[in-house]
Design a protein that fits this description.
The chain has two domains: 94 residues, no CATH class; 64 residues, no CATH class. The chain is built from five helices and no strands. By secondary structure, it is an all-alpha fold. Helix 1 runs antiparallel to helix 2 and helix 4 runs antiparallel to helix 5.
Length: 165
């Protein structure tokens, strides 16, 4: 426990040093202006100096071993937490005799396959109906309104699979 506290204190001190260095760089950048510059140029120089100091301090901070180690630990903890919650929920579903996630995924996959087969079959039927209407139109038996209705129905059936897939 004492070692953890010391390690945390060292990391906090390193973090504090980075920010103190950053603040001192910003102050130095603000006072490196030349007295002969016009006022707008002075402001640009101050702004550029501040941005440069911030960029260098943030880059130094984000590349520091303390920050990288902290991010590594955070990611490992997040992954561990995700695994624990997934296992816990799986146990809860098992205890409640509810379907597992894999069961639900399998059912959804089967439903998608069934939907695809149905839509493919509807396309085939629409093609057959369309062919029958065209052959009837060649004999003069199909009425114009019936042909137009068949074309609209065929177009709807052909558009529907593209929207659902």
């Amino acid at each position: 426990m004492d070692q953890d506290f010391e390690k945390t204190a060292e990391q906090a001190a390193a973090f504090q040093r980075l920010w103190v260095d950053s603040a001192s760089k910003i102050v130095q950048a603000a006072f490196t202006i030349t007295p002969n510059s016009p006022p707008p140029e002075i402001m640009r120089q101050i702004r550029a100096g501040i941005f440069q100091a911030l960029a260098s301090s943030w880059e130094e901070f984000m590349r520091s071993p303390q920050f990288l180690e902290g991010m590594k630990q955070w990611m490992e903890n997040a992954i561990t937490f995700r695994k624990m919650t997934t296992d816990f929920m799986a146990r809860v579903r098992n205890e409640m005799q509810a379907p597992s996630r894999e069961d639900i995924d399998t059912v959804m996959l089967n439903i998608r396959h069934l939907e695809k087969r149905l839509l493919d079959r509807l396309d085939e039927l629409a093609t057959q109906v369309n062919a029958m209407n065209h052959s009837a139109a060649g004999n003069g038996r199909a009425r114009p309104r019936a042909r137009a209705a068949a074309r609209r129905a065929t177009a709807k059936v052909r558009r529907a699979p593209a929207q659902k897939r």
